[in-house]
Amino acid sequence: MSGYGTAVVGVGQTEYSKDSGRSELQLASEAIRNALRDAGLGPADVDGLVTMSVDTNDELFLIRSVGIPSLRWSSRIPFGGGGSAGTVQHAVAAIESGLADTVVVYRAFNERSGRRFGQPGGRVVPPEWNWYLPYGLDTPAKIYSLWFQRYMTHYGVTNEDFGRYSVVARRHAATNPDAWFYQRPITLADHQASRWIVEPILRLLDMCQESDGGVAMVLTSAARARDLPHPPAYVAATALGQVMDGDTLFQYHLPDTTRFPQAEYVAEQLWKRTGLSPADIDTATLYDAQSPSVFFQLEAFGFCGPGEARDYIADGHIELGGSCPVNTHGGLLGEAYIHGINSMVEGVRQIRGTSHNQVAGARHVLCSSGKTAVVFAAG
Amino acid sequence: MAASVVPPSPVRDDAFFWEGVTRSQLLLRRCAQCERLHHPPSPMCPHCGSVEWRTEAASGEGTVHSWIVSAHPTEPDDSPRIVVLVDLAEGVRFVANLAGIAPADVTVGLAVRVTFETVGGVLLPQFRPVEVAE
Fold first, then answer.
1. Which is it for the CA torsion A54, A59, A65, A71, positive or negative?
2. Active-site residue A287, yes or no?
3. N or C terminus: fewer CB in 10 A for chain A?
4. Is this complex scored with an ipTM above 0.90?
5. For residue A173, is it within any domain?
6. Dist CA B7 CA B10 (whole Å)
7. Which chain A residues contact residue B73 at CB under 8 A?
8. Of A135, A199, A250, the CB nearest to B96
9. Cβ-nearest to A137 among B14, B40, B83
10. Which domain holds residue A109?
């Protein structure tokens, strides 16, 4: 017996593109339909929905489109992409408390052909941005770079170091037919020739994509999961980690800006609850809106020490065949940017043994979006 | 040199700051009960729960904690501006622009001092390197 309470029993997605040609509601509907079929379930089995607060799809329009007759749980997690893995925590909370039996987690958007988050100007911003936006700190790349640069100067890390992650992500994407960058690997020279986005921190090839697409996962109790077609991806633990001086974007008031205390807090909880350590993780997906995010997470989760991610990556640990392959789908850089939910789908595939870049015998998979994370386990 | 600045839209919790800028003051918010500074400010002191506070003008002295060059800020044709994260002498960090220095010359720990300058038609705090006597 697994001892686990909840499992992912179905995953679904649309194609990942730059122009889906259809509404975000249709993308969400298709992804959920596909996930339910994969689970061997139907819309009538669903009684809970969880998504991210920034998703534009209205829950009621969605159940009407998918054909879910009634709903008794819905919730949304804030914190932008950092909250993406936390959707699983919401689903687990609903299922293990008995407030829902079967919960669908979804995220769908036309993030390339529709509204583009990274474009400055012309937006309504929250009042907190008064402290930053008037100075031209206006895109995620710039906002995060003001945090990343301190790490670089403290440890002597260069953009070329970041590029070694991009090369790995694109190599993994190159053998993933679902990835936008399928069969399009890059070299470190390609990375170093790409244009600066924020010199000397981020180049174009350090950046995630802007993608159109939808992703969904179906979660239910471990007991029910055992009667369904696929090997369950059990939820060994989920965690959220936020701290008082942290921010979704502006991580400038942390006591130590060379660290990622939210991810450290997440890691502490996951290792304690599962009894696992980084050495037990067979493969991981780490949120990579920009390549340096992976460095911060590798260190926060304890795969290596502070300032050592550069060497850990250069030594090949995160590549297929390495000690802990990271983002075997190509990550948000290589596969698609479906706000991190697509990375959890890859985690489920690794547990099932059906990844396009399968890590042999993967039994424990960490899926982190930094401020939230989940450990999936095989039965 | 073109500059398009998105002006601040002051709200109740930060209006004091922007009012101070019009008088060339960098105002910080100090709890009236436990005397701690809090920046960016919140409506309640997180240390003691007081909602009574007073403002005080920061010295404007600090050192560079981190920085970036914001290429084409706000509008595609705008000139680059250095955005700086400053460790203020008062012990809190503050974001603004850094002027009067080439990006290649900026270093962590560089001593800077606040000035108030009109950028793109908006009066903003700006930092400049402190001239060091030879």
1. positive
2. yes
3. N
4. yes
5. no
6. 9
7. 120, 135-138
8. A135
9. B83
10. 6-115+209-377
Interchain proximity B14–A136, CB inside 8 Å: no
Q: Tell me the two tokens of residue B66.
A: 């981190």
Domain ranges, ordered by start, for chain B:
11-57, 59-134
User: So what's the pLDDT on residue B134?
Assistant: 47
- A35 located within any domain: yes
Among this protein's residues, is A144 annotated catalytic?
no
Confidence of residue A2 (pLDDT cuts 50, 70, 90): low
Tell me the CATH number at A48: 3.40.47.10
Chain A residues in contact with B10 by the CB 8 A cut-off are: 130
Answer whether residue A202 is part of any domain: no
Counted domains in chain A: 1
Q: Measured between alpha carbons, how far is A281 from A363 in angstroms, rounded to an integer? A: 8
Q: What is the CATH number of domain B59-134?
A: 2.40.50.140
Given an 8 Å threshold on Cβ–Cβ distance, is A138 in contact with B6?
Answer: yes
Closest by CA position to A134, among listed A120, A151, A148:
A120
* Candidates B14, B95, B124; nearest CB to A137: B95
